[in-house]
């Protein structure tokens, strides 16, 4: 093991790259997307954000049009990036999907107790977790499923004024609604993810690993005990 | 009343027959050609602009009954009596009060 | 000129435009709900004057041209004759220019006639061929063996000039399929074809004129204006046209009975002495005969004929006379209705005479002086020619310069009195506008050579041996044209190309000029258009500059009343209520009414009438891409009750049949037409393979119309046909 | 002061010649089969057994003061231009979702079959920039359509309105007065054609269900994060957590983790 015996490899460089690539895309997409929702009643933040962004991008609806192009381009880049990653690191993708969708007994208990512990305190003992804890799994599931929904509806919206006939505008309308819903839900999860990963002191090593690729063995044993156990046993499929 | 109408119509018919006979002597189409060739060189350029619709049929008839009295008669030298008749037919048949008043060009 | 236009228009809109522009600029940064500053800029177009050619009105226009492409046609606000408007057809003029089906090169027929097999050839070959064919025909059949037909076009005068120089007397235009009966009647009554001064009129009877759809400038707009000012407009029409809908009063008159209505008006005006006695005594002749003639023609009598209540007729006669002389029976244009249309229109003229409205505001006024000079020439005379036109003496009062297309066609088919074997056609389309299409086809089959010069492949062009592409009116230079606008005076327009001629098109002037050289009479065309205009404007030295500046020139317009005390150009020098000329010719000197003949066949119980949409100029515009959106197909207007009897429902396809032919089209079941009458638009059911919007779409009205003509002047008579109607598939 | 562009229509002058419609199509390159403006024909009354006087009513987008279409637009491509009061569609920002089409009670909008985005009357901004009136106004034979800034008392439109005070009518959707800026003089017909604005179900779902749901979800999540942050700040940072040098015992002791 590198760099020292007390560090375990947790992420491939390609994992790290795709994570930050995804994060950057989402940031741009979220901000530009919110900037497109000019409608006061729909924009959870109100119309000031679109107004400010449009002014930044050239003013008026022309500024909005720049935002739309930006949103469309970055959206396509994001989708293409994800697909390329899945090709380059097919094993990692399989591992990731298998891990996040495999629930173990105790995951639910972990989730409830962890939430209590992080907020009001107490909550009792936490059941051991695998490569991902249940919180991470929940957010990863939301991201994958939400990402698929966002990507698919986004493609419909992209196609709307390019190839789709008037007879399927109902589909476009629903794509708008679903796009919004999926982003909203994923964003709700994202807030917790960002807190947990970047702000909460508890996950600092995990955060660091998104740059270095390794976590301290002690940290891993504490937080992802089942994973370390599997690693130690050399179980197939363990990373 | 009715009787007088009939009589009046008969009279007009008779007059018309006379005038038509007079006109029929000349060839109006040839007259048009001749008028353009022989008259237009002055009329419309240096003399008064003149075309069939400048006068009524009666006025043309009167003028051609005594062509010697026409101002420019001295310039008519090259016009034969037959040609004169054709020119008259043209001017008369397309006069101001004719069924097909015509300007000349 | 463009600066001039924009300055004028800018003043009109200055406040609005300035506010909007300044506000936009200032607020763009602050108010995000605005377009970005400068996002909407004025188009980089050049503005060029023109004159519309989508119908005969020739409204002044401004073409907006961007990088050599016409983007938009706008009305020329200085062209007051059309009250600053351009109608739907005018706006669609752009689509005529860029019609993908336009004739692009000279085309030589290589298949059978009408088969649609063509070979593109060069201009030299095409014009050599035309010249040699015309020479051959002249040699074999005399020069009168060529027929020349030209439509209502500014360059048609060159076709007439060419025909005369070539030596043929046989020239027809569209007029003998349209307006000659009315002209005949007014020439024979007033000695003139007057213009209506609608703008100052207080009472107008529109009988068989649909001015809100068959737009005539400025009359169509003025009728609306005067109604707003309190004038009354009465419409007589078997159809609820848009004119009927908008009129003060509409009567669904029985077709063919207008004369009864007019004679009853005369009856009331004379018996109640509502006419101006001084005017009638001094300026008209034949009042006594007329009074006797109409003595029995009471409103009650007319009610039985026309279906209009006697009380209404009586009231209208009194109202009309009370408004005189600012009152009129509108003379109308198209009068090619019945075999006695000249006499019908005579009755219109007679009522006008009784109103004393001649040369008075709101009445009928003589054509205003335009000041244009004719450009003289000396065509040769050919001694071997027959004595006259091929249709000469067929009817008593043929206009010698117009003739009669229907009779000419008949005589070509017969080959008598002499054979006529060649046809030069310019921008007129008898295959789609002359009644009885089969006869036109039969006539064409008798020809040895037929050449058509046109913009699009009309049905007539489709039949030709040689088709030559002409540019549209926006692509060519034209002579000066005088246009009449009622009492407001004549105006002059000309055209310069707003874009160069597209494809290989050549103006008919150039075609004829070349042919005149090939045929040995170049002196008839020893000028170009600028020189020709100079000669036309010889008496109007300032006109050319003003035309360049404004796109229109108004010659001095003397006030009305200028003809007071002057003789009328009639045999009696007065307005002939009683026509001496007709008496001379053995015609009825007063209009004698006869009830319209019933259908000779009980199975054919509907009279077919023609009419117009404001988006259609007969057969010349229906293939226009934009206009076809407004009139995508024609329908048969069928009264609701008649439809019920026939078992026809809205939109059903019906089969319409007459002795001339048959057609299939959708029924428009409507209360807007009398039970005894059906109507359809012209310009559909075409046969040309290059008219994709109309070929195979709807039915052709000329396929159904029988070949009839006005017994006095030879004008076609297109309302004399009865048709049978049945639902398609019904027994 | 901001301009307020409006159209004042003397519909009794209209002869239904379609010049305005053709001019609009030509000026704006409107696709075949769709129309930015129209002339409606009133069903003629039957008087004494025959058809009575007809009435034709020119129309187009009314550039409402409270436009329902703007609310239905998810991207802000449709907006009320504050500078001149017109309701604008930015074609670059429109994604062609079609929401705005049924949301207009006047049927003024359509989805352009070629460009696949929403379209409607624009009052011809390019022509106005060139100092010309909108194409339909310029070309009208009887000048039934009058256009201008009605906040400027010297404009033709304002003058016409002032001259007809008390006689001006508007065609308004009964269910939803969008404050249209199309004024008809005296009377106009037909007048009952404005329909109830309808949003597509997907849009209602978005605005009434999804948007609140997302707000709650994000709010809840935000609250949770705040609570965690609060606890973190209040209870204090655990010096042992997250530092890779710390031993596991401390973790266990202080954090209560039992990862083994």
How many alpha or pi helices of chain D? 8
Query: What is the level 1 CATH name of the largest domain in chain D?
Result: Alpha Beta
User: For the terminal residues of chain C, how far apart are their CA atoms?
Assistant: 66 Å
Radius of gyration of chain C, Cα only, in angstroms? 26 Å
Question: Strand order within the widest sheet of chain C?
Answer: 5-4-17-16-15-6-7
Q: How many strand segments of chain D?
A: 12
Number of strands of chain C: 26
Shape of chain C: globular
Count of spatially separate domains of chain C: 4
- Gap between N and C termini of chain D: 74 Å
Name the poorly predicted regions of chain D. Answer: 239-260
Identify the biggest protein-protein contact and residues per side. A-D, 70 and 67 residues
Order of helices and strands of chain D: EHEEEEHEEHEEHHEHEEHH
Portion in strands of chain C:
15-25%
Number of helices of chain C: 25
Write the CATH fold name of the largest domain in chain C: Rossmann fold
- Give the DSSP E fraction of chain D (strand runs of 2 or more residues): 15-25%
Mind explaining what this structure looks like?
- Chain A has 10 helices and 2 strands.
- By secondary structure, chain A is mainly alpha-helical.
- Chain A folds into 2 domains: 9-88, no CATH class; 102-239, Fumarate Reductase Cytochrome B subunit (Up-down Bundle), CATH 1.20.950.
- In chain A, helix 1 (13-36) packs across helix 2, helix 1 packs antiparallel against helix 3 and helix 3 (60-88) packs across helix 6 (134-160).
- With 105 residues, chain B is an all-alpha fold.
- Chain B has one domain.
- Chain B has helices at residues 2-24, 28-39, 57-65, 81-93.
- Chain C has 731 residues and is α/β, with parallel strands linked by helices.
- In chain C, the strands form 7 sheets. A 7-stranded mixed sheet of chain C has the order 5-4-17-16-15-6-7. In chain C, strands 22-24-23-26-21-25 form a 6-stranded mixed sheet.
- In chain C, helix 7 links the parallel strand 9 and strand 10 (232-236).
- The longest helix of chain C is centred in the first third of the chain and has 26 residues, at 2-27.
- The N and C termini of chain C lie far apart (66 Å).
- The model of chain C is unreliable at 1-32 (pLDDT under 50).
- By secondary structure, chain D is of the alpha+beta class.
- In chain D, a hairpin with a 6-residue loop joins strand 8 and strand 9.
- The longest helix of chain D is centred in the C-terminal third of the chain and has 35 residues, at 201-235.
- The chains are: A mainly alpha (239), B mainly alpha (105), C alpha/beta (731), D alpha+beta (260).
């Amino acid at each position: 093991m590198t760099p020292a015996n007390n560090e375990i490899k947790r992420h491939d460089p390609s994992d790290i790259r795709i994570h930050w690539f995804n994060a950057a895309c989402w940031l741009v997409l979220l901000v530009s997307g919110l900037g497109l929702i000019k409608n006061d009643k729909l924009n959870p933040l109100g119309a000031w954000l679109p107004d400010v962004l449009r002014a930044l991008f050239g003013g008026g609806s022309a500024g909005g049009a720049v935002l739309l192009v930006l949103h469309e381009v970055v959206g396509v880049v994001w989708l293409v990036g994800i697909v390329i990653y899945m090709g380059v690191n097919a094993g990692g993708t399989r591992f990731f999907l298998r891990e996040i969708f495999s629930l173990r007994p105790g995951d639910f208990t972990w989730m409830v107790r962890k939430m209590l512990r992080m907020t009001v305190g107490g909550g009792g003992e936490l059941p051991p977790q695998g490569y991902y804890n249940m919180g991470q799994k929940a957010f990863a599931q939301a991201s994958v499923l939400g990402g698929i929904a966002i990507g698919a509806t986004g493609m419909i919206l992209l196609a709307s004024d390019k190839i789709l006939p008037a007879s399927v505008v109902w589909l476009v309308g629903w794509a708008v609604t679903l796009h919004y819903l999926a982003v909203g839900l994923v964003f709700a999860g994202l807030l917790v993810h960002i807190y947990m990963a970047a702000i909460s002191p508890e996950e600092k090593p995990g955060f660091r690993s998104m740059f270095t690729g390794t976590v301290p063995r002690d940290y891993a044993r504490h937080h992802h005990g089942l994973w370390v156990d599997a690693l130690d046993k050399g179980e197939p499929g363990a990373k | 009343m009715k009787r007088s109408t009939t009589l009046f119509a008969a009279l007009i018919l008779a007059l018309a027959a006379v005038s038509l006979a007079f006109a029929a002597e000349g060839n109006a189409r040839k007259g048009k050609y001749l008028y353009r060739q022989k008259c237009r060189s002055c009329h419309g350029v240096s003399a008064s602009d003149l075309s069939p619709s400048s006068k009524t049929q009666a006025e043309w008839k009167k003028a051609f009954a005594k062509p010697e009295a026409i101002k420019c008669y001295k310039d008519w030298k090259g016009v034969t009596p037959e040609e004169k008749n054709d020119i008259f037919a043209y001017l008369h048949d397309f006069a101001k009060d004719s069924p097909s008043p015509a300007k000349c060009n | 000129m463009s600066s001039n236009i924009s300055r004028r228009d800018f003043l009109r809109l200055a406040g609005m435009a300035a506010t909007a522009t300044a506000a936009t600029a200032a607020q763009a940064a602050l108010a995000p709900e605005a377009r970005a500053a400068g996002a909407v800029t004025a188009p980089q177009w050049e503005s060029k004057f023109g004159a519309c050619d989508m119908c005969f009105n020739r409204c002044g226009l401004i073409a907006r041209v961007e990088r050599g492409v016409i983007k938009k046609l706008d009305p020329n606000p200085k062209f007051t004759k059309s009250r600053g408007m351009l109608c739907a057809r005018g706006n669609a003029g752009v689509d005529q220019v860029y019609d993908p089906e336009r004739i692009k090169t000279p085309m030589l027929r290589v298949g059978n006639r009408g088969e649609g097999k063509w070979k593109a050839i060069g201009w030299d070959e095409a014009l050599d061929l035309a010249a040699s064919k015309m020479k051959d025909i002249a040699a074999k059949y005399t020069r009168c063996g060529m027929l020349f037909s030209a439509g209502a076009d500014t360059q048609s005068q060159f076709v007439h000039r060419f025909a005369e120089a070539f030596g043929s007397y046989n020239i027809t235009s569209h007029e003998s399929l349209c307006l000659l009966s009315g002209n005949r009647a007014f020439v024979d009554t007033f000695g003139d074809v007057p213009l209506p001064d609608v703008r100052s009129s207080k009472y107008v009877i529109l009988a068989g004129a649909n001015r809100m759809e068959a737009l005539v400038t400025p009359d169509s707009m003025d009728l609306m204006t005067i109604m707003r000012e309190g004038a009354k407009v009465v419409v007589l029409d078997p159809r609820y046209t848009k004119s009927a809908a908008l009129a003060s009063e509409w009567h669904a008159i029985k077709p063919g009975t207008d004369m009864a209505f007019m004679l009853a008006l005369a009856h009331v005006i004379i018996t109640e002495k509502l006419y101006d006695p001084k005017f009638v005594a001094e300026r008209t002749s034949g009042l006594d005969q007329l009074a006797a003639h109409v003595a029995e023609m009471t409103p009650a009598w007319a009610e039985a004929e026309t279906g209009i209540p006697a009380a209404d007729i009586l009231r209208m006669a009194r109202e009309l006379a009370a408004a005189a002389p600012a009152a009129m029976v509108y003379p109308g244009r198209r009068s090619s209705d019945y075999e006695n249309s000249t006499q019908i229109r005579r009755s219109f003229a007679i009522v006008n005479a009784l109103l004393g409205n001649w040369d008075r505001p709101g009445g009928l006024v003589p054509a205003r002086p335009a000041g244009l000079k004719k450009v003289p020439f000396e065509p040769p005379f050919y001694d071997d020619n027959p004595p006259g036109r091929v249709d000469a003496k067929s009817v008593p009062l043929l206009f010698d310069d117009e003739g009669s297309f229907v009779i000419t066609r008949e005589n070509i088919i017969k080959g008598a009195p002499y054979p006529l074997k060649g046809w030069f056609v310019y921008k007129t389309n008898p295959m789609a506008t002359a009644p009885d299409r089969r006869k036109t086809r039969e006539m064409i089959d008798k020809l040895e050579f037929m050449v058509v010069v046109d913009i699009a492949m009309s049905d007539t062009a489709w039949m030709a041996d040689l088709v030559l592409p002409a540019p549209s009116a926006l692509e060519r230079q034209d002579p000066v044209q005088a246009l009449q606008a009622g009492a407001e005076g004549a105006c002059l327009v000309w055209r310069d190309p707003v874009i160069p001629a597209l494809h290989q098109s050549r103006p008919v002037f150039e075609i004829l000029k070349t042919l005149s050289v090939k045929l040995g009479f170049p002196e008839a065309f020893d000028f170009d258009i600028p020189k020709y205009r100079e000669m036309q404007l010889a008496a109007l030295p300032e006109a050319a500059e003003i035309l360049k500046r404004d796109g229109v020139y108004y010659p001095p317009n003397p006030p009305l009343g200028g003809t007071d005390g002057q003789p009328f150009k009639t045999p009696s020098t007065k307005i002939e209520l009683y026509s001496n000329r007709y008496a001379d010719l053995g015609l009825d000197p007063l209009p004698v009414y006869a009830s319209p003949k019933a259908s000779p066949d009980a199975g054919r119980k509907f009279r077919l009438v023609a009419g117009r949409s404001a988006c259609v100029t007969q057969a010349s515009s229906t293939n226009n891409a934009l206009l076809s959106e407004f009139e995508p197909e024609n329908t048969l207007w069928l009264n609701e009750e008649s439809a019920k009897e026939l078992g026809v429902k809205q939109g059903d396809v019906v089969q319409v049949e007459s002795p001339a032919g048959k057609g299939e089209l959708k029924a428009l079941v409507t209360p807007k037409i009398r039970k005894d009458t059906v109507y359809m638009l012209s310009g559909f059911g075409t046969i040309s393979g290059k008219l994709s919007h109309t070929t195979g779409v709807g039915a052709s009205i000329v396929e159904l119309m029988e070949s009839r003509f006005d017994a006095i002047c030879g004008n076609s008579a297109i309302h004399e046909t009865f048709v049978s109607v049945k639902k398609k598939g019904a027994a | 002061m901001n301009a307020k562009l409006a159209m004042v229509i003397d519909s009794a002058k209209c002869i239904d010649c379609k010049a305005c419609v053709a001019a609009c199509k030509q000026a704006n390159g409107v696709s075949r089969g769709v129309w930015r403006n129209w002339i409606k024909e009133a069903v003629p009354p039957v008087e004494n057994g025959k058809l009575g006087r007809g009435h034709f009513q020119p129309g187009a987008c009314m550039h409402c003061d409270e436009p329902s279409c703007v609310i239905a637009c998810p991207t802000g491509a449709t907006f009320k231009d504050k500078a001149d009061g017109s309701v604008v569609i930015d074609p670059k920002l429109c994604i062609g979702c079609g929401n705005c089409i049924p949301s207009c009670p006047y049927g003024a909008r359509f989805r352009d079959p070629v460009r696949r985005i929403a379209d409607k009357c624009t009052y011809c901004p390019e022509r106005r920039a060139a100092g010309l009136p909108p194409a339909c106004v310029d070309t009208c034979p009887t000048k039934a359509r009058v256009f201008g800034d009605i906040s400027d008392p010297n404009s033709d439109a304002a003058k016409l309105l002032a001259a007809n005070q008390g006689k001006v009518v508007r065609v308004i959707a009964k269910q939803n007065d969008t404050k249209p800026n199309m004024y008809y003089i005296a009377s106009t017909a037909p007048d009952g054609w404005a329909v109830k604005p309808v949003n597509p179900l997907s849009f209602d779902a978005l605005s009434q269900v999804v948007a609140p749901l997302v707000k709650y979800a994000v709010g809840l999540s935000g609250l949770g994060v705040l609570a965690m942050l609060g606890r973190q700040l209040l209870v204090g940072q655990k010096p042992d957590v997250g530092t890779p040098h710390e031993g596991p015992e401390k973790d266990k002791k202080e954090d209560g983790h039992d990862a083994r």
